[in-house]
Structures are given as C-alpha cells and as structure tokens.
Amino acid sequence: MIPLAVRFAARELRAGVRGFRIFLACLALGVAAIAAAGSTAEAFRQGLAAEARDILGGDLAISVQGRRFSHEEQVVFERAGRTAYAAANRAMAEAPSGERRLVELRGVSPEYPVAGRVTLMGAASAREATARRGDAYGAAVEAALLERLGLRLGDRFLVGNVPMVATAVLLEEPDRLSRGFALGPRVLTSLEAVEASGLLAPGLPFGATARIVLPPGADPDRAEGEIRNQLPGKRLRIRTRDEAAQGIGRMIDQLEYFLAFIGLASLVAGGLGVYGAVTAYLQARKPVIATLKALGAEGGLVRDVYLIQIAVLALLGVAIGLAVGAAAPVILGRLVEDELPVPALFAVYPGPLLKAAAFGLLCAAAFALAPLGRARATPPASLFRSDLAGRLRFGPEIVGALVAAVGLAGLALVTAPTLLTAAAMIGGVIVAFVLLWLMGAGAARLAGRLRVGARGPVRIGLANLAGPGSAARTAAPAIGLGVALLAAVVLIQSSLLRQVSEVAPRSAPALVFTEIPHARAAAFDAEVARAFGTRLTPDIYLRAPMIDGRIVRIRGEPVERSRIRPNARWAYDARVTLSAIGPEPPNAEIRQGRWWPTAYDGPPLVAMSEEVAAGGGVRLGDVITIQVLGREIDARVAVLREVEFGGFGATFPLILTPNAIEGAEPRNVAIAKATRAQERAVTRALGRDFAEVNVISVREQLEAATALFDRLALAIRGAAAVAALAGLLVLAGAIAARARERTREAATLKVLGASRAQILAAYVLEYGAVGLIAGTAGVALGYAAAWPVVTQVFETDWSVDWGGVAALLGGAAAVTGAGGLLAAFQALSKRPAPALRAE
What we know:
23 strands, elongated, 6-stranded mixed barrel, 6-stranded mixed beta barrel, 839 residues, alpha+beta
C-alpha cells in the first residue's frame, strides 16, 4: 500500500515545477560547475595515464647533467631493454642572411624513438630527417625557427659552426611534454651532429638522457631498482612512466579543486535561492497545509509530503546539473582537442559525477530542511492568518540541515589536494557569507531609519528595503559572494598580468648572454657597445662570471635537509649558480653588512641572499663552506641582501669575492636592456666573433607568458562568473517569491494616487541599492582575499584594476536595478481591483 504522504506528494507534483524553477536552476548550476571541473580534470588524468609511456618516451628515462653515459652504464641500460639516447644543449642557429636565434638543440641516436612517434612534415621518420646530406647534417626544426631565420625546407643553416639542412618541420615529439619548458625553437638532429658541434664538451651545461622500453610484463619500479643496484654510487635521475608528468598532474589537481571550489561557492550561494524557493512554495501552499492540519494531520505528515516533493525535485536538479557538467567538457574537448597542450580522453566518468551529485544533494538538504521545519511547527490558526514566518524551533529538520552542512564541509575537505588550503577556502566562504548577511541586515535596518525623513518614491524604496522580505537580507549575500569571487580573480589577475606585461619588461633585462669566454670578456663588452651604438653603463649592461656551487657546511656542520626551511631547500639540495664580483653592483639591495672594497685580498667573503640565509639559519658573520670548481671554500658571510630574481641586477643567491676563484676561467653571463633594433643588431654582430655565445630574448619569453596568462585568466574568470550567475538566480528567486506581495503593494499604491513612474523609481532604487551594497561588500571581500595571495604567495607588487572594480560595482547595481524594473513591470501589469479582491 502506498503511504499517504507519497500519494499527497505525487498529486501535488502533477501540477508541475512552476514554483521550483529557481530551486532547480540554483542546484543545476552549482552541480554542473563541479561536475564539469571534475570531468575535465579526469579527462586529462586519463589522457596522461594512457599516454604515459609516450610522454616519457619509454618505460624508464635516465638523465645526467654535464656528462655522457659511460660504457658501463650503457651496457646496463641495454641489458634492461630497448634503449635510445639523446643529448641536448642550447645554441645559436644562424641563417645565411646573418639572422640568428637561440635554439634547443637535441641530438638522438638512430633507435629514437623507442616509444611513440615523431610527427613531421616533410619527412617520413626521425631517422630520415636527421640523416646526413653531404657535408651537412639533417635537422627537423620548428616552424617558428624557419619564420625567424627566413628559411625554407632544404635551406642550410649553422648551429655552433656545424652545417645543417632543414629537412622537415618538427610538429610533435613523443617525449616533449616530459622535458619541460624550452627557451627557443626545437631542432632535432642526430647525436653525431651535436657531438660535432662541441656542445657536449665537459663543463658545458648539457644534458644526456637514455630512454628504455622494457620487455612486456616487466615492472618499471623493479627495473629501476635493478639498475641502481648494478650502478652503485652513480648520480642518475631515473623516472618511470608513472612519473612522466608529475608536475602537470599536481597542477591538474590544484586547478580542478580551484574550479570545483568556485562551483561549490556557487552552490552555496545558490543555497539561498533553494531556501527562498522552498519558503515561497510553502507560503503559496499554506491553505493546503492549514487544511491538512485542521483535519488532524500531524506535523510529520505535512513535512513528509513536502519533503518527498523537494527530494524528487532535488534529484531532478542534480540530474540536470550532472547532464550539463558531463556533456560540456566532452563537447568543448571535441572543439579544441587539437589545441590542447596535454593529452586528454574526454568521456563520461562516474567518479566526478558522483562527487558533484553528493555536493548537490547535501546542499539541497542543508538549505531546504529549515523551511520545512517551520511549516511543520506552525499551528493551523497561524496558517489561516497567512502567517508562515513563525519561529524556527529545534527539531529533526534542523538536525538534518546541520548534518548536511557538516557533510558538505567534510566532503570539500576530503576531496581537496591539501587540508590547509581547503580549510582556508571554506573558512573564507563562511566568514564572507556571515559578513555579507550582517551587512545586508544592517543595510535594511539603516533604510528603516532613513525612510522617516524621506518622501515619494525614495520613501517607498527605503520602506521596501527595510521590510521583512527585503532583498538586502535574501539576495545581497549571494550576489555579494559572486562579486567577491569575481573581484578576487580580477584583482589577482590584474596584479600578476601587470607584473608580467609592464613591470617585468621595465625591470627585467631584455637580453641575457650566456657562455661568454672569460678570457675575451672585454672584447665581448666592446662588441656589444658597438652593436648598441652607445656606451655601456651599469644601468643598461652588467656582466659577471657564473659558476655552479653547493653549500655543504654551515658553521662547520654538514647541511641537514630537515633543518632547512622548505622555501629555501632549493639552495641547499643541489648546485646553484653563483658569481664572484669585486665592486658593489648596482641595485645590490644590502640589508645587513657592508660590501667589500674593490681590491679586497683577504680571506674569502660571501654576499648571501637574505631568504637563503634565513632558510638555513645563517647569520651575518657566520662561515659557510661552498663546494665550487672541484674544491671547498670557507667564506664568511659579509653581506645579506634581498635578491629580486628576474630583476635587473646581480641576481645570484651567492656572490664571492673575486680572489676566492682566482686562477679559474669561468664562463661569464651578461644582461642588457635593449630596444628591438639593438636586439637584432647585437644578435647578428655576435655571430661573427662570438658564435658560441647564447643570446636569450627575455622579451619574447615575457610576451609568450603574457599570452598564456591571458588565456588562463579568461578561463578562470569564466568559472568565477558562475558564482555571480548563482547570485543573480537568487535575486530572481527573491523577486519571484515576493511577486504576489508586489502586485498587491503596487495596486494599493496606484489606488492611493501613485504614478507608474513613482512606483518604477521606488523599485529601481530598492534593488539598485541592494546591488550597490552587495557589490561594495563583494569588492571589499575580494580585495581582502586577493591581497595576501598577490603579496605573500606570489610575492609581487599589489596593483588594483580600478576599471575592473568599477565595472563590477556598476554591473552589480545595474543588474539588480534591472531586476527591480522587472519586478515593477510584473506588478504593474495587473489591474488593481482583481489584485486587491484576491486578498
């Protein structure tokens, strides 16, 4: 037998979902956002997993720096499986016209690739493209290099004085993603060609890699262990196919959580719409509820009737959201599949959808149960008096709502990459929500006081703003939360984008020169000066020796990693670049100590980055031991300075006195500020006598970073706009919930002599004020959230996009004001007599 509550609920559901459209929209929007973020991330994870061997270029990738593999090592590798070798370094490519460009030169053995395939235009295989062409070596090159040097396929060019022929356009390499960022266009040639160029000489910063495909069924982890056991003491970096793209995997995890968190914030903001929709629906059903109670129905039956309806509709809203969230990434993936930098397998994945469904159902329960409790606890007499706003009493509905809220927070914590990040985000949303609600309530109370001295439409608008159904209390928190998320994204983006596109080009060098021979440093300076057509001064040109070193002891004690702060471990875990400079460089940014005299000839001293020193517990006057050039140097810390990496200055974490490396012949590095014309001139000029010097265009890297940041920021802004849309849905719900009251109110005002213009003005004032309040509060909260992210996390200068802020404020006020006009037109569309007789 069908329970009575189910029969009553089914009969009411036959009337349709007219009163629950906002309810459905709020749930569907948040669930769709979370499902889309999770499905997209899973598509990338599955794509990476499916192509892990191709991404790594094999089952194992073994790398060394600054040396070639020994015969013993090669024997062990080739015993493990089919092996291909590669070696790479940066070098300058030069066209017959004299145009030059830094390239990423990589030579491969004939067996390459052992996994995946090289995609070329103009040649059938990598072996064919890299085969010798008479006295020149074949090379597959990126299209960007052909364009920059003015070459066509079949043309000759030089790399490190080695003649090469552009035989094919290099489109894709199977192991490209695992190798990371490149400073220049890629050139793929034979290992023999790179050896002939001299770029693999001892002491040069080249890398060598062996990629191994294991026999079928072999375990990569076990193979790694066997190789290490056979080659004890060898400093080898070994990655298995499971570690092919670890950095990308972490980035996907973090981006998924950030986008899903925006979806969750949208869901919570839409929760007010859920609350309002349920309250408005129960308000409309009060005659039915009163009748049921008068006929003896218990409160539990009334609650169950509407609980079943809300549960069914919640499932429908979640289903709509899941359908949209599952379909959107698949459709988008099909449209941009060829442009994705990371492989993806777009499909419907149950895991992300189940997680999104859980979020949606918990949110529906958290916000819908409280109005049901109020309806259950209200006596019949109050219902017949049209009073459904009785006190909310503690009962099973409130317990259920609290449990659902705790479950919502717990699920957000469990699915987060880090508990600390999740706790901070959830805490921030809760605090923001409470502050926005308090501000809305305060604005309503202030409007009540201000209306005393107001007249006409202003008085009506203020009275509505102060009333029990004020949108300042219901819609302002949701709209404000959406504006806060958008404002935070806009402010973070504007600061970082300004740093990349404006500040960095002014403060960073335009050019970096590496591999400058120490013995010819003065001649190099003169060549640069001639090409620039000006005298080189410290504000536009700096040159210094550059060597690798490692901090091995602090105050005579070996470095212990556990005692080093995480933010400074990079300077103690491995070798770092350092220099040896006599006179105090410009922009030295000394915080403690004093720079040594130009002709200093005492015991070695060192200037140390303040951050690196603090991370290792090093103080001014301490002695640190640095392993450099095959020997250990004890140097006393004479200077602690702030180092702005990427700025124009001596941006080395460690700088020694020149006498510490006396007799050595280290390569030099130089930085320069230059116009585009000077950049072209010096690049061509150095090709004659300094072909071995690499010229790196920082301007090009900054422009590429700006374009990438713009695309990423646009996507994140779009995601944040979902939260703003949720706020607008809540506004629409608030307007719909009070439509009947607005109609009666407008009819009364017209009977009392108010004109249409006055009523319209009153409503626009009311809702425009709500938008301005929510917008101002949202921008303030967005500012509070963005400032520490920019200054503390990214450690960059704070910059406010006042245009974006003004647009957010104006947009919030304009959209809510338009909502007021909509409410007014809806109320004025009905004649006064029928509206008043309905009461």
